[in-house]
Design a protein that fits this description.
Rossmann fold; eight-stranded mixed sheet; five-stranded antiparallel sheet; 12 helices; 36% strand; globular
């Protein structure tokens, strides 16, 4: 009897141990996808917040107790014909008298979309449709009396009391003139989709106008119906003509607008505009084409006069800084890496430096805001380690600093309006996102979401742990890395390796955080493959010198570091150095292709998804920021473009691309295939019809993609 029990127990244990993560779990059922609090909004009292429940009601809760206070809005109780199908997004006016609700989202590019918008007046209990069609970037005025929006490239606003719609511009035209929303390259590389702002006093709208009439068009074939359609849009490639931009201010009362002078030059960028807390005061950020000179203009909205109050220059490039203002309007805080690391500086509105707030050989990675009452700046940094993030407060007078997050890993923060509370999203490589409420002293109040259900599922399967290591190159450069071993692991066995890389400027793969995409690596580990990630030179959180050393030679040092890291794995007895593969997406696909070509046989195979294959094919803002102009730096473009190294490629190669990729054009892969054929290189390829850069379009697309890559890696390593 005891023997039978023992045998049964062993069978059960083997059954449990055999459970692994399948591709169906990841990309069909999304069995292990974590819960989040994306629809959280802090109310101005600083003591309460709202959540959207089941896409149909907006409910207010207490920070302190978590108890429901009131139901603010409910679709199910709204007895009108024209109403949102569901609440996909919502925002309050500054005075919280109105709620802007969006529905029926129709995605355009990475950040932009068209939506049906509705305004709910919380006092009158009245729902008002913004427009009879889908529009872009609707935004309430601070007092909730107006809503501005963009329709067919023109900027409008609607008086919600009279229902009068006023056209601020009338020259908008597709692929020619854009008002109030950015062109493609601004949206992609400066990361915004709304190019206008209401003034705090509701009197003015400042907006950017884009004249892209001289920008060359790019066309993509969309395959549907008997005759495919051609989609055309303006895409400035490196060294080509950009949109001509101008800044305008519109007066709601007088219904007049004027253009603001930002100097005599014409080829520049306006990456950000901000209204200050002072009356009629606007700040515009201006960058030159090379993005190594940044200026802040202080503009009087009444007179239109402008003056430069801040200027920064850099030998390489300047990333768009974060800026926050004090409530009294006298100061602003700005991030800059001018001392070698990204830190926070305080200036008055005349541009005089008050003081450097943070100092040290570490980077501030997020500036959350300034609490005027407590004289405290809140920020996130990599002070403890480049692989970790913690949230801090620092007093701007005493310079006393306090770490507010207790757990090592990856910490993000969303603060209440009065900075009395913050919600900490915490994770590490073993723990999925946990949302915890803290006060501004770092005292835990309660757990909002711990993803316990997901943790229980993960506990039922075998998981490999990411082990953080430092790999040293032949030049003595230390590179952060993680290694994920197969499960089960046999120390006397040699295993194949797959490098997973991105490696682009300021990015990081080697972080102590939970990453849904790492579930694929767990799947590979269950098949006996070691997975490795290495942050090469050029990546983030290690200071300006480490990040900017790749300037004007994009791809050179990054490739060297990945090749050197692969060689350094020889120190581990369980690594089979004759079976090392590498894969990446976008910039990572660019590097994986380059590593296969320049690696001299170090890599047995490479998988490249949506890779840049020639920097001359990519957009102006990104490429010129990191590589300069092709007219001035041709070798920086050509020496490290994979398309020019095809002859040296040795090993198995899988090339994947979406045919409707608006970001890294399918052209990159087409031109590379021409070269591969020309040099008689054997390779595999897969294209996904009508898929963009993310390759999500169509049922089972992601599942098919990862099946394809898994089969290729397993069979060829």
């Amino acid at each position: 009897m005891n023997k039978i029990i023992t045998v049964l127990f062993s069978i059960v244990c083997v059954s449990i141990q055999a459970q692994t993560i399948s591709l169906e779990d990841i990309w069909v059922t999304y069995k292990y996808y974590p819960k989040s609090l994306d629809d959280f909004r802090s109310l101005k009292n600083g003591e309460t917040y709202t959540l959207c429940v089941n896409d149909e009601k907006i409910t207010e809760y207490s920070y302190k107790t978590g108890k429901e206070i009131r139901k603010i809005f409910s679709l199910s109780e709204l007895n009108v014909e024209n109403k949102p199908l569901k609440i996909e997004n919502y925002d309050f006016s500054e005075d919280e008298s109105s709620i802007l609700i969006s529905s029926e989202k129709e995605r355009i590019y990475r950040h932009s979309s068209k939506n049906k918008f509705f305004v709910w007046n919380t006092l009158q209990k009245k729902l008002i449709p913004v427009w009879n069609d889908k529009v872009q970037e609707a935004t309430l005025s601070p007092n909730g009396k107006y809503v501005a929006f963009v329709y067919n490239n023109n900027l409008y606003y609607k008086d919600l009391q009279t229902n009068e719609v006023v056209s601020i511009t009338n020259d908008g035209e597709i692929n020619k003139i854009i008002n109030g929303i950015p062109d493609w390259v601004y949206e992609e590389e400066f990361s915004f989709s709304k190019a206008y702002e209401w003034s705090p006093d509701n009197q003015y709208i400042a907006f950017i106008r884009f004249d892209e009439s001289k920008v060359k068009e790019f066309s993509m074939t969309i395959f549907k119906g008997l005759y495919p359609e051609e989609y055309r849009y303006k895409y400035p490639k490196a060294g080509e003509k950009n949109s001509s931009v101008s800044l305008h201010i519109y007066n709601i009362n007088t219904k007049k607008q004027w253009m603001v002078s930002l100097g005599n030059d014409t080829d520049f960028y306006i990456p950000r505009i901000f209204w200050t807390k002072l009356p009629h005061s606007l700040i515009a950020m201006k960058m030159n084409r090379l993005q190594n000179i940044m200026q802040l203009f202080l503009i009087n909205a009444e007179s239109g006069q402008s003056q430069i109050i801040y200027e920064e220059k850099n030998d390489a490039y300047i990333e768009v800084p974060e800026i926050v203002f004090s409530a009294d309007g006298k100061y602003f805080f700005l991030t800059s890496d001018k001392d070698g690391f990204n830190h926070i500086y305080q200036y008055d509105l005349n541009g005089n430096l008050i003081k450097q707030i943070t100092k040290g050989n570490w980077d501030v990675t997020k500036l959350h805001g300034y609490d005027d009452n407590q004289s405290l700046i809140y920020y996130t940094s990599a002070e403890k380690s480049p692989i970790h993030r913690h949230v801090y407060s620092i007093h701007t007078q005493t310079m006393n600093k306090k770490q507010l997050t207790p757990n090592d890993g990856y910490n993000e923060a969303t603060f209440s309006r009065n900075f009395k509370y913050f919600i900490n999203e915490f994770s590490n490589t073993q723990v999925p996102s946990t949302f915890i409420l803290y006060d501004n002293q770092g005292k835990q109040i309660r757990i909002l979401e711990n993803n316990d259900e997901l943790k229980q599922k993960l506990n039922q399967i075998q998981l490999s742990r990411k082990e953080f290591v430092v790999l040293k190159t032949s030049e003595g450069i230390e590179l952060n890395a993680w290694i994920m071993k197969p499960v089960p692991f046999e120390s006397n066995k040699k295993y194949p390796v797959l490098f997973c890389i991105y490696g682009g400027p300021g990015s990081q793969e080697v972080l102590d955080r939970w990453d849904y995409n790492s579930l694929w690596y767990q799947h590979l580990a269950s098949k006996g493959i070691v997975v490795v990630a290495v942050d090469n030179r050029g990546t983030g959180a290690r200071g300006a010198a480490f990040k900017k050393c790749t300037y004007r030679n994009l791809g050179k040092l990054e490739t060297i570091d990945q090749i050197e890291a692969a060689k350094a794995l020889a120190q581990f007895a369980f690594i089979d150095t004759s079976r090392i593969g590498i894969w990446g997406w976008s910039f990572g696909g660019y590097l994986s292709t380059l590593c296969l070509a320049k690696g001299q046989g170090v890599f047995k195979l490479a998988v490249a998804v949506a890779p840049v294959t020639n920097w001359r094919y990519y957009d102006s803002i990104y490429t010129e920021r990191y590589n300069g102009l092709p007219q001035e730096n041709p070798s920086g473009y050509d020496d490290n473009s994979p398309i020019n190294h095809v002859k040296k490629m040795k090993g198995k190669y899988l090339l994947i691309h979406g045919t409707a990729d608006d970001n890294v054009h399918f052209q990159n892969s087409v031109e590379l295939v021409k070269k591969l054929v020309e040099h008689n290189k054997n390779f595999e390829t897969m294209y996904y019809p009508n898929s963009n850069h993310g390759i999500y379009t169509g049922k089972n697309t992601r599942y098919h993609l990862f099946q394809k890559m898994t089969k290729f890696v397993v069979e060829n390593l």
